[in-house]
Design a protein that fits this description.
single chain, alpha+beta, Lambda Exonuclease, Chain A, 4-stranded antiparallel sheet
Length: 132
C-alpha cells in the first residue's frame, strides 16, 4: 500500500480519484444491483466517452462531507471510552503494483485499520431493502 499525500476534497484529490478505480466504484464494476451506475456507464466515464456525474450539489454527499469530521471525532471518543487512544486520520492510498486501484479512506488508525464513516439521513433508511 502506498500512501498518497493529498488533502481530501481538493482539486488535486478529485483529479487523483478520477484517474483510478476506487472503493466508491466497486459496486458498478461488479454490477451490484444497488450501484448508482452500470458497469458500462462507469467504463464510459473512465475512458472519457462521457462526463462523470457532478455530485457536489447532492444533498447526501454534501451532508456526509460536512458531518464526516464530527463522525470521526465521535468515533475517536468512542474508542477512548473503550480504553483505546488513537487518532483516525483521513488518508489516501493506492496499490503498490496497480496504482489505478486506490481508495480515499475516511480514516486510518495507527494499527493500519481502515475506518469507513457513514452519516445517513432518514431517507436512506426508507430506501434500504429489508434485511433477512
Amino acid at each position: 500500500m502506498i500512501y498518497v499525500d493529498l488533502v481530501q476534497g481538493t482539486p488535486e484529490w478529485h483529479k487523483w480519484r478520477a484517474g483510478g478505480i476506487g472503493a466508491s466504484s466497486v459496486a458498478s464494476v461488479i454490477q451490484w444491483p444497488y450501484a448508482h451506475e452500470s458497469a458500462r456507464a462507469f467504463w464510459m466515464v473512465k475512458t472519457g466517452r462521457k462526463p462523470g456525474t457532478d455530485l457536489s450539489k447532492n444533498f447526501l454527499v454534501r451532508r456526509g462531507n460536512e458531518q464526516e469530521p464530527l463522525a470521526r471525532q465521535a468515533f475517536e471518543r468512542w474508542l477512548e471510552s473503550q480504553g483505546i487512544l488513537d487518532l483516525v486520520i483521513p488518508t489516501c492510498v493506492q496499490h503498490e503494483t496497480y496504482s489505478f486501484i486506490r481508495v480515499s479512506l475516511d480514516g486510518l488508525m495507527s494499527d493500519g485499520s481502515p475506518v469507513e464513516l457513514k452519516v445517513p439521513a432518514w431517507e436512506t433508511f426508507e430506501v434500504m431493502p429489508p434485511i433477512g
